[in-house]
Design brief:
Blueprint: H1 8-17, H2 20-50, H3 55-61, H4 66-96, H5 99-112, H6 121-126, H7 128-140
Helix pairs in contact: 1-2, 2-4, 4-7
Keywords: Iron, Metal-binding, Oxidoreductase
GO molecular function: metal ion binding; oxidoreductase activity
Organism: Forsythia ovata
Length: 157
C-alpha cells in the first residue's frame, strides 16, 4: 500500500501514528515474527534434546542471534513461495495435457494415502512417480531461471 500513497510522507505519517494500513502491517509483521520465534524456540529445545541436524539447526548451531535467525527463516519462506507456486503451476499445466500421466499421478497418491488421513513427509517420500513428474517439469520449465549479475564497473583498485 505504500506505493499507492501519492507521496512517501503519507505512509511515514501513518507509520509514526500507527494508523490504517501501517497499523495492519505492523500487526502482521509482529504475528510473523512471533510465529517464527516459536519455531526457533522449539528447534532450540530439539537441538538440546537429540542434536538433530537440519538447516535451521545449523543456523542455531552457528550461534547467530535469534533476530538474525528469524530474519533468515522469513527470507527462506518468502523466497520459496514464488518458486514453489511456479513449479506446481507448471506441473499441473503439463499434467492437464497428459490425461494418462495425470491418472498415474492420482493413482499413486491414492495408493499411498486414500484420503483417510493427512499426508505426511513419509508419504511424500514414497511418491516416486510424482517426484519424477515434478523433476521433469522443473527441468523443462525451471521455476528460477539463471540470472547472472555482474558489476558495471570496477569499484576497488
Amino acid at each position: 500500500m505504500r506505493g499507492m500513497d501519492p507521496v512517501s510522507a503519507v505512509w511515514k505519517c501513518k507509520r509514526t501514528l500507527n494508523l490504517g494500513s501501517e497499523k495492519k502491517l505492523k500487526e502482521f509483521v509482529n504475528f510473523i515474527h512471533s510465529s517464527v520465534n516459536e519455531i526457533i524456540q522449539a528447534k532450540k529445545r530439539k537441538l538440546e534434546k537429540d542434536g538433530a541436524n537440519d538447516l535451521l539447526l545449523r543456523f542455531l548451531g552457528a550461534r547467530l542471534d535469534d533476530e538474525m535467525v528469524r530474519d533468515m527463516v522469513i527470507s527462506f519462506l518468502m523466497a520459496g513461495r514464488d518458486t514453489t507456486s511456479a513449479a506446481l503451476t507448471l506441473l499441473f499445466w503439463l499434467l492437464s495435457g497428459q490425461p494418462d500421466i495425470e491418472k498415474q499421478v492420482v493413482d499413486e497418491a491414492f495408493s499411498i494415502n486414500s484420503g483417510e488421513k493427512s499426508l505426511n513427509f513419509n508419504d511424500l517420500k514414497e511418491m516416486k512417480y510424482i517426484k519424477a513428474c515434478l523433476c521433469e517439469s522443473m527441468r523443462l520449465y525451471p521455476p528460477v531461471v539463471w540470472d547472472s549479475k555482474h558489476a558495471a564497473k570496477k569499484t576497488l583498485s
